[in-house]
Amino acid sequence: MALNLAHQTGAAAAVTAAPAAPRSAVVAAASTVAPSSTAPSSAPALQARTVTVDPAPAQGQDSVKPDLAMVCQALVDGKPEAEHADVAAEVKSKEGVPVFVMMPLDTVRKDGNSLNRRRAVEASMAALKSAGVEGIMVDVWWGIAEAEGPAQYNFNGYMELMEMARKNGLKVQAVMSFHQCGGNVGDSVTIPLPKWVLEEMDKDQDLAYTDRSGRRNYEYVSLGCDALPVLKGRTPIQCYADFMRAFRDHFATYMGNTIVEIQVGMGPAGELRYPSYPESNGTWCFPGIGEFQCYDRYMLSSLKAAAEAVGKPEWGNAGPSDAGSYKEWPEDTPFFRREGGWNTEYGQFFMSWYSQMLLEHGERILSAATGVFTASPGVKISVKVAGIHWHYGTRSHAAELTAGYYNTRHHDGYQPIARMLGRHGAVLNFTCVEMRDHEQPQDAQCRPEGLVQQVAAAAREAGIGLAGENALPRYDETAHDQVVATAAEKAEEERMVAFTYLRMGPDLFQPDNWRRFAAFVKRMSGAGKRDMCREQVEREASGVAHATQPLVQEAAVALTN
Q1: How far lies 552's CA from each of 135, 177, 546, in Å?
Q2: CATH number where 548 lies
Q3: Cβ atoms of 157 and 115 closer than 8 Å
Q4: Residue 476 labelled as part of a binding site
Q5: 485 annotated as a binding-site residue
Q6: Is the pLDDT reported for residue 122 higher than 90?
């Protein structure tokens, strides 16, 4: 999956929360606006219908080589792992935090029929299992699995991966990736939206997010048309629901025992946000404030209705005209500066509407997801919230505002999100757990550590599980120490429910990096055990590194090639 934003020297993204504030009448008025009722008359008048197909039969798979993997596992712990139907209870009973590892973005071939670098995947899984890793995370790309046409699903390559994970005793976090791969930090490959979706977006370019200059963004279908049948007769929400239902049915025998989490994509990079800081073509660069994405006609129609509802029709013509451009800083703009327009009656109205539209989008997709996966015991649903730590120390939090998080010195932007997730029993996933304040450029007022503390408090207040990721690939003990301290070395009620390590690749399997990673996994899984010392962990990690050396060498070579 696409990574969150990061500075080239190590700054990356995070999430924040601030003291709660009461919703105003402006928010209440804005929240009553529904995209379907406010779309202009020029919107395509298509008949809504949901098209489904019978799931394709599971394909026979080549058996995974058991010999070397079994030998290495026996050398490490000598215990076979039993599968459990109640995975949630199993994870909760563990003392530490389970570690998952993100698979490469192009794990499945673009034709969807098989795996890329199958030998590398096979050897890597065996090595990860021997190191004590709980499982893997993989993007299930909309642009691959439904590429051929509406409701024509091809999960063959993913079936091969799930079977390989099962045979290695690894759990799977499956990401429903309804976004484009390419254009964000860490996107090493390009996987566009399905061709038939892009055809509709070419016919009606207002299906794409649009900025003040008219620049279109094709990473994700605009949330402004969520409830309109603009994709070959289906609404975007119907498309997402049908895709998830087909995935559930196709992998029914894996749900709850191998597949233990469904992360539901909700925007660019799979995150619940607007595409306010696109890196493609140099549009944005760190630590720019980004731009509001509310200029497609569906979003503007909703804004117009919201403004009329509060008796201020002049506020409904466009977004703020003085909010600057992608690469500017807060103090460069009248809207975001210290006492700028963000803190006026108009600014409060606009940000309430803009953020409420994002919340309603999340609500719609989560309602669809819970409807699909409720009958799958042992499967958690999670949502990724973008970590935006730059300019967090300012009053306006400009970069968060353009992304859709109404989080300022005076207004909490994350408790509403956490509470929305809580209504559906979803886990909140966020990044930058490995980062420290002093590693970041101070002139941009980056505050990753405080950010992590605040989002943890928001999750606790909402009664939801909190999971984490590292924002950038890190193999050093300093980063590992920070993750362990932040995610695992807490009271049981404050620990994260899982941590996903970014990312499987040849660098991870370099000898020193692999030894340090094995020690990191041991520390995470053993957090809370008073009798576990650092020296013991290092000895055990060295044993793992020695036992898995053949697998690791094979994986590193295969991944490099």
Answers
A1: 17, 29, 10
A2: 3.20.20.80
A3: yes
A4: no
A5: no
A6: yes
Q: What is the pLDDT of residue 44?
A: 34
Residues 451, 397: Cα–Cα separation, whole Å: 12
pLDDT (0 to 100) of residue 88: 35
392-420: average pLDDT:
96
Q: Which domain holds residue 435?
A: 99-288+360-560
d(CA 275, CA 269): 9
Question: Which of 146, 160, 271, 291 is the catalytic position?
Answer: 271
The Cβ of residue 269 has, within 10 Å, a number of other Cβ atoms equal to: 27
Residue tagged active-site, from 160, 469, 540, 554: 469
**431 annotated ligand-binding residue:** yes
pLDDT tens for 380-389 read 999 999 889 9
pLDDT score recorded for residue 281: 85
Judged against a pLDDT cut of 70, whether residue 309 lies above it is answered with: yes
The mean pLDDT value for 431-460 works out to: 92
The span from the CA of 26 to the CA of 292, in Å, is: 19
Which of the four pLDDT bands, split at 50, 70 and 90, describes residue 53? very low
Is it true that the peptide bond before 287 is cis, omega within 30 degrees of 0? yes
Return the amino acid letter for 299: M
Confidence of residue 39 (pLDDT cuts 50, 70, 90): very low
Give the integer Cα–Cα distance in Å for 400 and 386: 9
Cα 135 from Cα 168, distance rounded (Å): 9
Tell me if 139 is assigned to a ligand binding site.
yes
pTM: 0.84
Q: Which residues is 380 bridged to in the sheet?
A: 261
Sequence-distant (≥ 6) Cβ neighbours of residue 374 within 8 angstroms: none
Mean pLDDT of the chain: 85
Look up residue 289 and give its amino acid. I
Residue 469 is among the residues annotated as catalytic for this protein? yes
pLDDT digits (tens, 9 = 90+) for 489-498: 888 888 999 9
Instruction: Answer whether residue 48 is part of any domain.
Output: no
Domain-embedded: residue 298 = no
Contact 175, 247 (CB under 8 A): no
Structural domain total, the chain: 1
pLDDT of residue 94: 56
Name the DSSP class of 520: H
The amino acid that residue 437 corresponds to is D
Residue 493: Cβ within 10 Å count: 6
Domain membership flag for residue 88: no
Question: Is 16 annotated as ligand-binding?
Answer: no
187 carries a ligand binding annotation: yes
Determine the Cα–Cα distance for residues 495 and 479; give it in Å rounded to an integer.
18
- For residue 503, cis peptide bond before it (omega within 30 degrees of 0): yes
Task: Give the mean model confidence (pLDDT) for residues 184-206.
Answer: 91
